[in-house]
Design brief:
Elements lengths: L19 E6 L2 E5 L4 E5 L8 E10 L4 E17 L3 E7 L4 E7 L2 E11 L1
Antiparallel strand pairs: 1-2, 1-4, 3-8, 4-5, 5-8, 6-7
Length: 115
């Protein structure tokens, strides 16, 4: 059996595409679907609050629309990310510097996408 006559399982043309949106917050872009939970830069709203995010792009599975879309999300909690270490050294000079950093993050759950 050659590769050309082999059956294709899970053909991508028969798949139903899920709706998704691309949002921008904290200087970063995220691809989100309904029900996703993600960590973003710290927001000032309280836990349990509902927020609306502007979508750069929205796809309903068939077509892609740019702008003019809203994404609703609920703030789950505020927390700090894992510790990142910045370490500098200059060899043979006795210079070493070690600084740690933990980013303040907000965990949000995407509740709905509106195109």
């Amino acid at each position: 059996m050659s590769i050309l006559s082999a059956p294709i399982y899970g053909d991508f043309r028969d798949r139903i595409m899920e709706a998704y949106a691309i949002i921008q917050t904290g200087g970063k872009q995220y691809r989100v679907e309904e029900g996703d939970v993600l960590d973003i830069e710290l927001l000032s709203e309280e836990e349990g609050a509902s927020i609306a995010l502007d979508a750069i792009a929205f796809s309903d599975g068939k077509s892609l629309n740019l702008g003019e879309s809203k994404v609703s999300a609920e703030i789950v909690d505020h927390h700090r990310g894992k510790k990142l270490i910045a370490y500098k050294k200059k060899r043979r000079k006795g210079y070493e510097r070690k600084v740690g950093h933990r980013q303040e993050l907000t965990r949000v759950k995407i509740t709905s996408l509106a195109g």
